[in-house]
Amino acid sequence: MNGQAPQHHAARVEAAITSGQAARSALVASWRRSSRLHHLDPSGRGLSQRLTDAELREARERIAPLLAAAQGAMDRLYQAVGAAGCCVLLADGEGIPVDRRGVSADDATFQSWGLWTGALWSEEHEGTNGIGTCVVEQRPLTIDRDQHFFTRNTLLSCTAVPIYDHEAAFAGVLDVSSCRADRTDAFSNLIALAAGEAARRIEADLFRRAFAHARIVLTQAADGQCGGLVAVDADDLVIGATRSARAGLGLPPGRALRPVPAADLLGGDVARDHLAGGQRAVLQRALLRAGGNVSAAAKALGVSRATLHRKLKRFELNH
């Protein structure tokens, strides 16, 4: 980067902000937040700020369920993009990477750029960037090279995807970053698809862990694709739904669901078809494990003996 580049980039950012483009461009709106709200200078040369080791441990503990659910998906995503010079980061809801994957040969480079656990990547600290801007806008996005606010970050290309927890509340960001100049648009599109799929796998695993004792039912979107997951308890009540399922079913995100009869929410015969097979299998397993003892099976399922008898009669199960 030549000596004029920092001034040129800073001038371009300021010109875009003062031109009024922020009303039409999400990127310029982010630049404006970085400059006017957070009082950052795009030509600033300060190093990225980082948490202490103790603060990072606390940050990791706060999102322990998300960390646990993300391990497999992060491994698979890294296997797909790591050889191409990318690192994979999982950041919390404040924009702090708490876990990462990367080729050891590239570690020194990424660490020098602040693409490391414990770094503060919120817009407040780093201006427009993949992780921080995703935290603000809560949508998938790519901040490519000179779209970054700080000149010192304009060698980076960052693709970020929001992750939502079991109550459909914003929980963190999955990011794939590269500092190689040969990253093409086609490859960037593939990274965006892979990161999006990995984020959905993390959400599904997080949801299944949160509702480990419930039956998980797939909902269908209008286009025929999988619309999300709902959790149904032993009394046929929907007690949880992923963000995509809530969107399709008209349920509000970001908080625990009030239990709703599955047949009412999922719709008559379709719901019964989904639930009947799953519930019958659950009942059969409970009875087998209890050696045919209805009282023991009811206790294991968390329902009353009378409720279990009704269900056994409904599914014509002998005991």
E-strand count: 9
Summarize the amount of helix as a percent range: 40-55%
Structural class: alpha+beta
Give the integer mean of the pLDDT values. Answer: 88
Task: Based on Cα principal axes, name the global outline.
Answer: elongated
End-to-end C-alpha gap: 77 Å
Any idea what the CATH superfamily of the largest domain is called? GAF domain
Look at the structure and give the CATH class of the largest domain.
Alpha Beta
Strand order of the largest sheet: 2-1-5-4-3
Tell me about the largest β-sheet: 5 strands, antiparallel
Radius of gyration (CA) equals 24 Å
Low-confidence runs of at least 5 consecutive residues: none
The helix/strand series, from N terminus to C terminus, equals HHHHEEHHHEEEHEEEHEHHHH
Which tags fit this structure?
single chain; 319 residues; alpha+beta; Beta-Lactamase; five-stranded antiparallel beta sheet; four-stranded antiparallel beta sheet; 13 helices; 17% strand
